[in-house]
Amino acid sequence: MTGDEKNQRVLRLGLLTARASRLGGGVFEAVVAQAQALKAHGGITPIVFGAADEFTAEDKKRLGTVELVSVPSRGPAAFDYAPGLLPLIRAADLDILHLHGIWQYVSLCGAGWAEATKRPYLISPHGMLDPWITARGRWKKALARVGYERRSWRDASLFHALTEAEARDIARETGTEKSRIAVVPNYVAADTAPPAPRAPLVLYIGRIHPKKNLEALVEAWSAAQASEAGYRLAIAGWGEPAHVAALQARFAALADPGIAFLGPVYGEQKQKLLREARFMVLPSLSEGLPMAVLEAWAAATPSLMSAACNLPEGFAQGAALETGVDSASIAATLRRAFALPAADWQAMSAVAHALAQSRFSPQAIAAQWAALYHRLAAGEYMSGP
What we know:
Distance between the termini: 33 Å
CATH superfamily of the largest domain: Glycogen Phosphorylase B
Number of strands: 13
Low-confidence stretches: none
Order of helices and strands: HEHEHEHEHEHHEHEEHEHEHEHEHEHHH
Shape: globular
CATH topology of the largest domain: Rossmann fold
Strand content: 15-25%
CATH class of the largest domain: Alpha Beta
Structural class: alpha/beta
Strand order of the largest sheet: 3-2-1-4-5-6-7
Number of domains: 2
Largest sheet: 7 strands, parallel
Oligomer: single chain
């Protein structure tokens, strides 16, 4: 912490997310990482708010000494209506509220808090204004815009984008000026001593959802003759029952012993897989900035990913191979990965780990956030247009 930061008062920061558990997917992972890093950085007291579910009590442990405030949700899971959450947020006497994720009840909570307190309110859409996302469920999103999102966007002092591409999406969809959009990437804690030997394993970890493009990946896997190359594919994740059932049906039709569906993995089991895999694969159609790839890089695992992952430095510096999104392109990249000489893989692994340690380290990004929050608290950004 710098001398100027030591002289600043400690800010009370609310991190608001729809689900206060693993069921929040990558957004919850980003909130956990941010809360931990800010707590370690100092000068800010983070408090996490969200809807509770069956995993909240267990996942609360991941926050360490960071306070978690949660209430049960009601009704459809897609909206995560959590009555009683807004009064708790207001009672917390926050200096700043930071909303992670949109299109759900928490947007109403954020706007209600901002209007009542007139204090800085920051929104991180987490890729949820990507054209692929906004094109799906158009009528539901149209109702959400009219019902509560425009109100929330209007009350925001600042928007946060994970990438420059997302900043353009935010400006286009919300009408927000560029001066009110801050670009700060996600971050991840890198392994201190990543293991070198790896199994011939390609790993996917994340949500089972059409945007992840797993159907094309499975089709490409068969075309790439992965089994003949001695490789296995492991898909670990969770999702809506219909999406999971469709993927499992595809596996059953293929009857390929080299493909395994592991279901959800967390904690040490997840870290063990990341450290054992030779590659992480994510041929996604739409992303904000995927925590799964950053977590893989932190474990010194190179990635096979699409440009939609918004991590061009991975391609530029050699931590990733680009897959494309059609099965033929993915298959070609898989074959290239299978044929990669050991020395070349080691070089990719080293670059991936170095990126996690530098560009995406908790220390580097927490410092950016701390400076931004203090500028918000000082009134540098006006609330609303």
